[in-house]
Each structure stands twice: as C-alpha cells, then as structure tokens.
Amino acid sequence: MTFKYRALLGACAIGAISTGALAETITIATVNNGDMIRMQGYTDDFTAKTGHEVEWVTLEENVLRQRVTQDIAAKGGQFDIMTIGMYETPIWGQQDWLVALDDLSAEYDVDDILPAMRGGLSVDGTLYAAPFYGESSMIMYRTDLMEKAGLEMPDAPTWEFVAEAARAMTDKENEIYGICLRGKAGWGENMAFLTATSNAFGARWFDEDWKPQFDSPEWNETLTFYLDLMNEAGPPGASTNGFNENLSLFQQGKCGMWIDATVAASFVTNPNDSTVADKVGFALAPDTGKGKRGNWLWAWALAIPAGTQKVDAAKAFIEWATSKAYIEMVAEKEGWANVPPGARTSLYENPEYQKVPFAQMTLDSILSADPTQPTVEPVPYVGVQFAAIPEFAGIATQVGQEFSAALAGQQTAEEALEKAQALTADEMEAAGY
How far apart, in whole angstroms, are the C-alpha atoms of residue 132 and residue 120? Predict the structure, then answer.
C-alpha cells in the first residue's frame, strides 16, 4: 500500500493531513541564520497541520556545507531535507542526487517564485530546491555616523566613496569601526564577499580557457584595497568574522557600514535585537565605474536528497515552509519586516511589504545581479560570487584561507595571490580543465 500526501497550501489555510497518510519524523539540516532559527519556532504549526514531526540539525555555515556535501556524495541518508543554495542545487540536480520538485501543488504557485531564484535552483527548467529566502548583498550603514562625518550616502556609491566614508566614521578609541566585512575563510564566507567585490574591480576567477587569474592586476587591486581598508577602518580580529559575527557587531553599534546579505536588514532594524535599529540606511553594493557592482545572488533553499525514504513528508514540509501562507503567518505574528525576503514576486507586490524600508533596495539588488555575465571580461562560468563547477567549493575554501591569513597579517597580498594562483592551477589541471 502506498501513502500519498499532498499539502494544500493556500492563502486561507494549509490542509490537514490526508486520510490514511503516514505521519513521519523528518530530519532537516539547516544553517544557524536568523530566519532559519525563526522557522524552527513555527514547526508546531507544520506538525499540527500534517502530523509530521521535525528534528533539526542546525549548523554554522561552513560546517553545514561540509556535512551535507559529504552526506549526499556518500549517499549517507542522514537528512530528509537539506538547506543548500544556488551553487549546489544545479550541480547536484544534474547528478540526480536531489528529488525533483516538479509536482508541487497548484496552490503553492511555483510561478510566483522570483525568476532569478527559480532559475538558479533549476536544471533544464525543473526546480530541484525551493527558496526559503533569496538575497543579494547591499550596504547597511549608520545614518547618524554618516551625518557626523559630513557625508551623504548615494543610492549607488562607488568603492572610493565607501572607503572615504569608512575612514571618516572610524573611532577606534570608542570601538566604532567604519566598515565590517567578512574575513572568515570559506567559499561561502570571505570568498563570497571577495569574489563579488572582485567583479566590480574587473577581476575574474578564470579566463575563457579556464586559466586562473589570481596573478592579474585586477585581483591584486581587489585584495590590496580590501586589506588596506580593513586594516585602517575594520574591527580587530576580522579574519574570524563571518555573517553572524558582523551582524552582532553591527547590532552592538560597532560598525559604521556593513556590506553583506540583504537578508540582514530585518535583523539590524529590529529594535529587540539592534541598538541602532532606528539609525540604519541602505544602498546598493559599491562599484568602480566598470559596469559591475560588488553584490552577489544567493538563495538558502530546501532540497530533498534522493536517498530519503520520506519524500512525501519532506515535500509537505517544503511546501509549508516556502509558501505564501508561511510568509503571512510570520507577518501576522512578527510584522512584515521579519518575513523571509527575496523569494516570491507576490511579496514585493504587497502594499504592506512595500512600506518596509529595505524592501525596494533588496529587490533592486537582487535584480541587478547577473549570474550569466557576472564579470567585466567574458568568463566560461555561471555564478556571481562562485563559479558553478564542482571543483569550486574545495578550491575557493583553500583560497579563502590564504586571503584570511593575509587579513590576519600572516602574509602579504602578493604572497596570498601567488599561493592562490598556484593551488588553483594545480587543482584545475588535476580536474582535467
């Protein structure tokens, strides 16, 4: 006998468990970001509506990536749902490591998912992960400190202006640092930020023949600019700071500017968590006048590994967690500013959400990222802050370690770039490029 379950996700309600469906306990691996922590608090709603229980494995970003990659490659079967992104989804979907999400309910409304998100989570038009939230990156800045420095943030600033403002806002005696940027090593940590930034400086990972480009003047300019700026206007110990560490610093009032995921906007403006909630402005990620901005494109999405025995229950959870109804539930309980952003067109058409101060800047940032043409010069890869090839995660993690060591003062920019060039060339040659 087969048990078939379909979640009925509509604006009114999520249907109760269908007659005869089997209640399961599903295990979900996710990242320790605020929106995911919030989702766990609503799990009782899912259980009440479906009968399915949920066990959470919540991990720091780098650890999550490592664990889910190892598990899916080894067909370990530890998880029924994995939180992954735009890098892994197309690669794993192509290898049949994920269950296709091609039969979600009509009420779920797949067509409402923002095209940029749907495209990045699909293979040949088939969705393999559903976005819980989507993001780009942007500048979050202290309006009071900017005013005190006698400067005015443009909607679309240059890196030159950002550097000037960062130095002007820095007051190290009072533990105020003009800029907080990622320094923690990892392909999705410092390398997400630095790769996106390098695009604005005219750099690229590979030329059209897959030759690594870390020996280029553009990469030298990118890394040198970043190191100088962080040494002069960044917080101490920045080489161990990732998203969550910088979020905490900003909320404590210690950062003049923070360039990071657009999803952070709801946390830095939440008066329950942020000491500067009423003093935050937003702007597009900086450029250098070469036609590309230093912003990325990403979705934290829910996917089902092909090895699970609980596909129906897993699909029911994905429909629940990434639905319009979930967004409305969070809005009702916590306000529109705290709903998961960047995933659905209908959210940005909602007059209530349009009142949220960062809503439009988030959407503008998402729409300005171009994964098919991410760089000034042509490249053979797709992806803004990553190159969508299986080897990238391993290579970029090693490169990130070299750049993080340079930020910690253990080597120069030139030494870090020389090592990055050598190790990338070796890995790409070994992989047959």
Answer: 13
- Do 365 and 384 contact (CB within 8 A), yes or no? no
CA–CA dist 237, 398 (Å, integer): 20
Residues 152 and 69 in one domain: no
Q: Give the domain extent around 187.
A: 137-296+377-430
- Spatial neighbors of 198 by CB under 8 A, at least 6 apart, are 204, 218, 219, 222
Q: 404-430: per-residue pLDDT in tens?
A: 999 999 999 999 999 999 999 999 999
**Which candidate, 93, 45, 36, 11, places its Cα nearest to that of 344?**
11
One-letter amino acid at 285 equals A
pLDDT in tens, 29-52: 999 999 999 999 999 999 999 999
- As a whole number, the mean pLDDT across the chain is 94
pLDDT at residue number 22: 85
Structural domain count of the chain: 2
Cα torsion at 12, 37, 112, 326 (round to 10°)? 0
Please name the residues in contact with 261: beta carbons below 8 A apart, sequence gap of 6 or more: 135, 136, 137, 243, 298
CB contact at 8 A, 355 and 121: no
CB-count burial class (<10 Å; 0-12, 13-18, 19+) for 355: exposed
In a domain, residue 372? The reply is: no
CA distances from 77 to 28, 34, 302, 306, 308 (A): 11, 26, 16, 9, 6
